[in-house]
Structure formats: C-alpha cells, structure tokens
Design brief:
The protein is mostly helical. It has three helices and no strands. It has a single domain, classed as Ribosomal protein S20 (Methane Monooxygenase Hydroxylase, Chain G, domain 1, Up-down Bundle).
C-alpha cells in the first residue's frame, strides 16, 4: 500500500487510465470481431461500416498511446485485405 499522499493519488489515476484503456481496447476487438463475422456471412454494407469504425478506433489508439503504430498499420492492412475478399 502506498504511504505517501502523491502515491495514493497516483494509484487512483492509474486505475482510471487502465479502465479507459481497457474500454478502448475492448471496443476495438469487438469491432474487428464483428467485421470478420460480417465478411464471413457476406454482409458487405455491415463489413464496410465495421471497417471504417475499426480504422477510426485504430487511429485513436495510436494517439492515446494504447497501441504501437506498427501494430496499427499491420491490423489496418489485414482488415483491408479481408474487406477486399468480398
């Protein structure tokens, strides 16, 4: 347990940041999962909508320092290839 007042505050700040990061990561994973499902089922309109949303979330994750730019680039490329299969 932290003893110093600033450490106690820092613990709270870290918990809030961790929760926010988890929400953003979870939202991204869900969107990517829905995209893959839409592609498998052949729903092109839904797939394109999920693709656009996934790109937005991926870009946002770079600016939030949640994901590394190389990871984001790789995911975008993979999803674009997936969309082009429809």
């Amino acid at each position: 347990m932290p003893q110093i007042e600033s450490q106690k505050k820092r613990v709270l700040t870290t918990r809030k940041a961790t929760a926010a990061n988890k929400r953003q990561k979870s939202s991204l994973r869900t969107t990517m999962s829905n995209l893959r499902l839409a592609v498998e089922e052949g729903r092109k309109d839904d797939a394109v909508a999920y693709f656009n949303r996934a790109n937005e979330l991926l870009d946002k994750s770079i600016t939030s320092n949640i994901h590394h730019p190389n990871y984001v680039s790789r995911q975008k490329s993979t999803l674009a290839k997936l969309i082009n299969t429809i």
